Amino acid sequence: MSANLIIDSITRHVQLSADEQQHFLSLLKPKTYKRKQFVLQDGQVCKYSTFVTSGCLRGFTVDQNGFEHVLNFAPVGWWIADMYSLLTQKPGILNIEALEDTEVLLLSKADQEKLYHEIPKFERFFRIITENSLVSFQQRLIDNLSLTAEERYHNFCRRYPTLIYTLPKKQIASYIGVTPEFFSRMQHKMLLKDKK
Prior knowledge:
Helices cover about 50% and strands about 20% of the residues. By secondary structure, it is α+β, with helices and mostly antiparallel strands. This is Crp/Fnr family transcriptional regulator.
């Protein structure tokens, strides 16, 4: 099942032969994380690209006042990594934590580099998902600078439709950059508006 999921995610962008699929799958390391367990912590070097096959991960930073800032979520079928740390192999600033019991497939940086030489199509695949990620982060930055909290929430719903009803409200509030109290008031106001 998890093999099909990751192969499907790749074949949306590049076509692989049966041998190429098998070779790729042989490089992946399955791992399970319990709820609240860290995949990666601030200060560690990111050695893997992580693909989620069940559950959900979140990427976040903690500021000097102890406030968490959620950068992204990785539900089923999504990749996640601290890109800065993965590419430079220097300690990163991202924490990646399981929001529930989560199963993943890990691809090490070394194996990813090896894949680029052995099956050049993978260089194209990872370039596409890196470009998509860059576009998404740029859009999110612009949204945070120019949109209201309500508009940012609507964008969150479009980006993560499977998470709207499953994530704790506190996590969604952190992602859109508001306090949980403000988020509750905003949702209440939106409900009243919808009823009119």
